[in-house]
Amino acid sequence: MSEIMPLLALENVTKTFGRGVGAVQALRGVSLTLSPGRATALVGASGSGKTTCARMLMGLEPPSGGTVRFKGRERAAMPGGRERLAFARCVQVVFQDPFAVLNPAHTIYYQLARPLARYHGLRGRATLKAPVGALLAEVGLDAGLMERFPHQLSGGQRQRVNIARALAAEPEVLIADEPTSMLDLSLRLGVLAIFKRLKAERNLSLLYITHDLATAHHIADEICVMHDGLIVERGPAGEVIANPTHPYTRLLLAAVPDPDRPRHGS
């Protein structure tokens, strides 16, 4: 049986910001692969390098060294035009703050109709209304919300709209950058459940970026722990949680308020 080619990959990537004595090495030899139907959690504190990894995978930041590959091809070698549009459609992002991303001057219908028009060439309200409603239903929202504005929705509803907007492109890779950190605890599990269901139903490759090992365990097949520009531990989610080998992973785990979690070193 042939091995499935990763959709996106970082291969021994380094990234340095600045020059000379003020240079900051944000990434130091990071390798990461994202494959269909798999959820990978990139876990670490602020400044660990996880956002820089995400920006490289999105094509927003070039590496200082190493290679970024898209479906086996070096991304730097991709020409513009049609291939760049194909990449933008394939790789979509759900950001941390949905209110900052959604345009407050436009209805939810407009926010979802726009990517449907861009990526699928759909035009006219009569044509777009049904697919907009279907996108809302896929994230657990009523189609009647399409006539509302972002400020008329709750934080959890706005984040679901943000997910629906990413889905409008029919992506193969979904990068979720701290997507629940601005939500109340009661809303987080509902949003995480959407990601888990979408991964299975759409065979998505999901990169979940977080500082929280608890939510990473809930959603991910594989956990990669980042510290000081390095992936210091990686493995199946259950194994990393049950038997962490790196001191930094143990430190993150100790911060998780779970009374049923095994206590290491006690």
**Could you name the CATH class?**
Alpha Beta
Q: Provide the succession of SSEs.
A: EEEHEEHEHHHHEHEHEEHH
Number of discrete domains: 1
- What is the helical fraction, as a range of percent? 25-40%
- N- and C-termini, Cα separation: 44 Å
Low-pLDDT parts are 261-266
- Order of strands, widest sheet: 6-7-8-3-9-10
3D architecture notes:
- There is one protein chain.
- With 266 residues, this protein is α/β, with parallel strands linked by helices.
- It has one domain: Rossmann fold.
- It is built from ten helices and ten strands.
- α4 packs across α5 and α4 runs parallel beside α6.
- The C terminus is likely disordered.
Topology:
Elements: E1 8-17, E2 24-34, E3 39-43, H1 50-57, E4 65-70, E5 73-74, H2 82-90, E6 91-94, H3 98-101, H4 108-120, H5 125-138, H6 155-167, E7 173-177, H7 185-202, E8 205-210, H8 213-219, E9 222-227, E10 230-236, H9 237-242, H10 247-254
Parallel strand pairs: 3-8, 3-9, 6-7, 7-8
Antiparallel strand pairs: 1-2, 1-4, 4-5, 9-10
Helix pairs in contact: 4-5, 4-6
Write a concise synopsis of the structure shown.
Helix content is 38%, strand content 23%. The chain has 266 residues and is α/β, with parallel strands linked by helices. The strands form 2 sheets. Strands 6-7-8-3-9-10 form a 6-stranded mixed beta sheet, sandwiched between helices. A 4-stranded antiparallel beta sheet has the order 2-1-4-5, covered by helices on one side.
